[in-house]
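pasting for ref
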Amino acid sequence: MSTARSRVPEFSAGLEWFNVDAPVRLAGQRGRIVLVCFCSFSDIPSQHVLADMNYFASKYRKDLTVLGVHSTRFPAEMRRSHVQKMMNKFHIRFPFVHDPELKLCKRFGIRQWPTQVLADRDGFIIGALAGDGKRARLKEVIEYQIKRESRFGSTGSEAYTVSQTPEPQALLSFPGRVLVSRDRVYISDSAHNQVIITSANGNILRRIGSTSPGFIDGDSLSAAFNNPQGMALGDQSLYVADEGNHAIRCVNVRSGEVTTVAGTGTPGTVTGPVVTRPREMQLKSPLDLVLVNGVLFIAMAGMHQVWSLSLIKNTIKVFSGSGREGLRDGSPNTAEFAQPSGLTVYGKSLYAVDAISSAIRCIDIDSGSVTTIAGSGCYESGDQDGALSAAKLQYPMAIEADMEHKMLWVSDTYNNKIRRVGIKTQHVSSVILDRKLDEPCGLAFHGGTLYIANTNAHEVLCLNPDSGRAEPLNVSEEHTHV
């Protein structure tokens, strides 16, 4: 951290605040240490840092003021409704200010998200740390600063009260993904940190995992997940991308027993060769899974890569992607992804959606080489149907193959749409629904019905693609035996 002595800039007037009734003045926090986090909700490293900020706000509440700044990267992030939903989705418990025009970023000189700026009790900047994974370093600096006295004294600090706007009560909480088999529906009830198994008509057969986040193997009641996302089904095993734990978990669908098959619970930073002990390999934010002939392909969003886990050989490796964030086609070693968030298989190809580049990618399942079929660059987005080469999406999170109609379904999350992508026609069109979507993140096509995890509305919809009629899956607590 830099030791330059410069006064922390005051926040701009006229910005919208969340979790407080009035703006928090930095000048009014003299006598307290101040930690300002600049982040974007669409960015996975920012999501990790938000958990750190909650930790600091709780642990050091007597001496530390934690403030968040939402820096928009996509048009949809400018909406107040989006910000409020993200506040609740990530359980943010400290004051947050919405900075849609990046005024505060310019005032503070922020060029990378997330960045955490720390100021001492006298209002001077101690330094800034960019990126995630900085909790231990920040903890050291904060605890050192707590021991230092201020010429102002903490009694002169302006008090503020955190007042959150809660989500409506529902059986599901920000469901991230959905998977459907012949007579079962599997739901990643992400904000409840659970996986739910229901009957075809929505009766809950089993809840797996405690509602509190954790990384625990065991039976369905004692096991713990942290923001479970994409799933894949093989025989009696349900594989789960446990995003917050940076791990792949396996659920025995008959017993509810949960085991870890890959990942250590801590995020990784390296991309090495084949590893023969997947449970010792550090992963980073797996978001989706697809199972092909005994190989589990993983959308490793936090590493901007696609990985493969052989369930037969018990090995794990990078399948495609250099690890650099970008939109570049080519061989597995040179291709670049930008937060791959959804996977599906169609014929001999894997199809992926990149959230940050709003792109659809095609990956040869034999060679791992990558071709872009829609999208033009990082943070370049839009809302346009037509030929694939001209189509534009905004932060797509899921993609689903439809062999029956020779097409792909895409959850165009920030456009609040579902898109059709013709494999042969190379054409993109928007699906007309009889109800509004609220940032849908998960898709599953089964038996002529498209199941949609309508994430911010806390529901799973069942869509008839021909009529456009969508009805909620009637999820209920009528427990029966699996």
